[in-house]
Write a structure and sequence with these properties.
CATH superfamily of the largest domain: NAD(P)-binding Rossmann-like Domain
Strand order of the largest sheet: 3-2-1-4-5
Strand content: 15-25%
CATH class of the largest domain: Alpha Beta
Structural class: alpha/beta
Number of domains: 3
CATH topology of the largest domain: Rossmann fold
Largest sheet: 5 strands, parallel
Low-confidence stretches: none
Shape: elongated
Number of helices: 8
Helix content: 40-55%
CATH architecture of the largest domain: 3-Layer(aba) Sandwich
Length: 199
């Protein structure tokens, strides 16, 4: 498997099913600026709230073969194997497809991941043990605490400023390396002083 990060902005994402699994998949997709479309006769309370808030589109009916057309990413998450198989059958080879009850018919899998602002760490066991992936995520949660979110913002600002103001390549590399020192993650004052002294 080849790990990637997908930019789903303005992409049509189709989820067939309105139960708990579909809810979990939708939660992962919210905030990605995708156009999420749910096809299902009914929804969980959580999905219905997302619909009322305008965060997803809901087609209140059973799956139809034309639903997969123009979808960038498709997830079949019903509790009916025949419906899930029909979803897969009507997807093209160029679409990203996840069939929740049939990994062999899927060409991508959701991974456990940790997010701290711009820091994103994905964990996959390629289906061997989702529980192990979750356990590893919990372990990483303790190591990569909330301080990393502000630290990453600082790193981006500092990197852009270094690229703009420092022309000497050796000096540029030295400054970028210096940014990895722990004091910059832990101390706001150190971050401010560093930015002031870039020249």
């Amino acid at each position: 498997m080849y790990p990637v990060m997908l930019n789903l902005k303005n992409k049509r994402v189709l989820i067939v099913g309105g139960g708990e699994i579909a809810t979990k998949k939708t939660k992962l997709l919210l905030g990605q600026n995708a156009r999420i479309v749910i096809v299902s006769p009914s929804l969980t309370n959580t999905l219905h709230t997302y619909f009322l808030q305008g965060e997803i589109q809901w087609l209140e009916r059973d799956f139809e073969i034309t639903d997969t057309k123009d979808a960038f990413l498709v997830i079949a998450a019903t509790n009916n194997r025949e419906v899930n198989a029909a979803v897969r059958k009507n997807c093209s080879e160029n679409q990203l497809v996840n069939i929740v009850d049939s990994p062999d018919d899927s060409n991508f899998y959701n991974m456990a991941y940790l997010e701290r602002g711009k820091l994103k760490i994905a964990i996959s066991t390629e289906g061997a043990s989702p529980l192990l992936a979750k356990q590893i995520k919990n372990d990483l949660n303790e190591f990569f605490d909330e301080s990393y979110e502000e630290y990453l913002k600082f790193l981006l600002t500092a990197r852009e400023k270094i690229k703009l103001l420092v022309s000497d390549e050796e000096r540029k590399h030295q400054l970028l390396q210096e940014l990895l020192e722990e004091k910059f993650r832990k101390e706001e004052l150190q971050r401010e002083l560093f930015l002031l002294n870039i020249q």
